[in-house]
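Materials and Methods. Structural model of Multidrug efflux SMR transporter. The 105-residue sequence of Multidrug efflux SMR transporter from Actinomadura vinacea was retrieved and submitted for structure prediction as follows.
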Amino acid sequence: MTWVYLGIAIVFEVIFALGTNATKGFTRLWPSVLTLLAAASGIYTLSLALRELDVSVGYTLWTGLGGVGTVIFGAVIFKEKITSARLVSFAAIIGGAVLLRLTAV
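The predicted structure was written out as tokens:
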């Protein structure tokens, strides 16, 4: 269940980040409510994952993969550009996440 909790936390992290943009500075009610719920839910499910995972691994995967997901969905939803430099950055983040997982004791 640890990895399921972490996966759910990552999804909430992406929703939180994208929702923050949609709130327009927390001036729009429903996007603001969704964003705050996503933030709280992400932190809660991350805390469940950290019962078993080292914080260094869990938090890094949460923020790193959440960041990659945010950029991908930002491109789809908000038409942000994905450049070759961003693709290389994604590869570095994903490679680092895989290496962290493989070296975790």
